[in-house]
Amino acid sequence: MDYLVETKNITKRFGGLTAVNEVSFGVEAGEIVAVLGDNGAGKSTLIKMISGVHQPDGGQIFVEGKEVNIHSPMDALSMGIETIYQDLALAENMNVYSNIFLGREKTRKAWGLFDVLDSKFMYEESMGVLKKLNIKIPSLRNNVRTLSGGQRQAVAISRSIYWNAQFLIMDEPTAALGVAQQHQVLELVKSLKDHGLGIIIISHQMHDVFAVADRIIVMRRGEKVGDLLKKDTNPDEVVNLIVGSESVV
Amino acid sequence: MNAVTKNKTTNLVMDLGRRWALIFLLIELIFFSFFAKGFMSLRVFQMIFFFGITVFLLGTAELFVIITGGIDLSVGYVMGFASIISAKMISAFVHGGMHPFPALILGIVLTLLIGLLPGLINGLLISKLRVPPFIATFSMLGISHGVAELLLLNGAAKDLPHLANLIGNGYFLYWAPGPGLSFFVRPEIPRGGFIIELIPNIVVLAFVVIGILAFVLKRTVFGQHTYAIGGNVDAAIRSGINVGRHKVKIYMLSSFLASLAGVIYVLMYVTGKGDAGAASLLDAIAAVVIGGASLYGGKGTVWRTILGALIIAVLETGLRVMGIPTFDKYIIVGVILISAVLIDKVFPEKTYTDNKE
């Protein structure tokens, strides 16, 4: 099997505590993998080694089959690995297309002298990516502050897609959203599969996980205790794995 | 009233509410034109802009800093410091045998360069050593005040060439019957002859600089990053913006504008003074807030800051024309300031609907 992103025996220690112990798993292109586990099970630490926030103390990470060292979130970004943060990396005081282009603004020459923002270009490109992902927002000129939580998630995701993300990491993407918006975000996540992205979702909501994931990985006390295809399992089995009354590897 | 017209009325009220500062300025002008005898005259409007320059410049400086979520308390005394060193340098150059014009230009250019220094120090303290902006710039306030007074120990900052006065109190545009329009140079007319002096030179100078900065803030990457830092500094960092370096530039811009205000002060009054801008600091911050900016950062525009400064300047001038003591101004500005913050809370920001189904 060809994995888009793969870890082999990856380990992270904080002092005497082993947060992640020799975990191996992989995500294919077009696959959604959910990582589940109780608080402190090591799922965030595991993800943060892929997104470049933490450096592993042992083991290897492969991206498209090649071994890589990810030293920082910027390294991860350059490899097409984007993290959609829970607290949303958007500037709420700025409009939608400015956020999509934040830090990578498109400029043009005004009167052949100064570089000025090419708002028309940024507006139209942003419009294009939102259309592609079938996202509806009243106007791209609206400040992010005026958008709903679901729309903000959608903007953050479109931003990653526009900049050619190959692999998305989503930490609790539906937390703090209303029911209708949760549904919208999950639909969007599912549709990203068709664009060939690999996706990892961390979530506490069993319902979300079973709605979108293809495969479920369960972490307990820093170790991988389950790696199951969704179609072969059920919520009860997963819950048992999380709390530790069963182990299926 | 059907639903559509009702909706339109609400939108109109919202639009007017968001423009309350402009409406308030118009009300002020109408009020003073009725109750302040001689208010509606070219002379008074020139006064408003001429004496408003300090607050326009310091307000613009403060705006950039406040958008990033900071504050610069040092602008007032940096202005005073700049007024003294420029006056001292220019008079030294002239006494050293230089012609007034090159002496003036050299003194001004050197002052503007030295004027970047307080901002550089503020910026480095704030972004590299994580000193809170309030503390860093408050210390710089004291330091620039002290250094300015030290510079005065060996004599006052005066003996400037007459040219300074000609520029500082001259006009950009004159009109007189006969010679017609003339730029910059006062036409030769008989004493007591009719002449219209239109726009003071330094008002033109200040507004050219302010206009450029309005453009920079609204239309360039520099402006975008300034807003992004104030809106969500984590988002700015994750987007690859060099937040530390950008903040240093912002504080340098602020002290540059304060120095420019100091140089202009010298041209206006033909002398330097340590506390030249001290009283204008709070007016500058008030102008920014009345103009709709938030001290939490991320909001504000140059033109609305100028609008805020004009509200204060018109009030001050109007009361002076009416012969009312100016300490009444402080009370009124205080009330406007509180109202500004409350009114901006009532009216939500504008939203668009381009993508109709």
Folded structure, characterized:
The complex is a heterodimer of chains A (249) and B (357). Chain A has 249 residues and is of the alpha/beta class. Chain A folds into two domains: 164 residues, P-loop containing nucleotide triphosphate hydrolases (Rossmann fold, 3-Layer(aba) Sandwich); 72 residues, no CATH class. Helix content of chain A is 31%, strand content 29%. Chain A has eight helices and twelve strands. Chain A has a six-stranded mixed sheet, sandwiched between helices. A four-stranded antiparallel sheet of chain A has the order 2-1-4-5, covered by helices on one side. Chain A has a two-stranded antiparallel sheet with strand order 7-8. In chain A, strand 4 and strand 5 form a beta hairpin. In chain A, helix 4 packs across helix 5 and helix 5 runs parallel beside helix 6. In chain A, 45% of the residues are buried. The mean pLDDT of chain A is 89. Chain B has 357 residues and is mostly helical. Chain B has a single domain, classed as ABC transporter involved in vitamin B12 uptake, BtuC (Orthogonal Bundle). Helices cover 69% and strands 3% of the residues of chain B. Chain B has a three-stranded antiparallel sheet, with no helix packed on it. In chain B, a hairpin with a 3-residue loop joins strand 1 and strand 2. The mean pLDDT of chain B is 91. Chains A and B meet through strand 8 of A and helix 10 and helix 11 of B.
Brief overview:
The complex is a heterodimer of chains A (249) and B (357). Chain A is α/β, with parallel strands linked by helices and 249 residues long. In chain A, 31% of the residues lie in helices and 29% in strands.
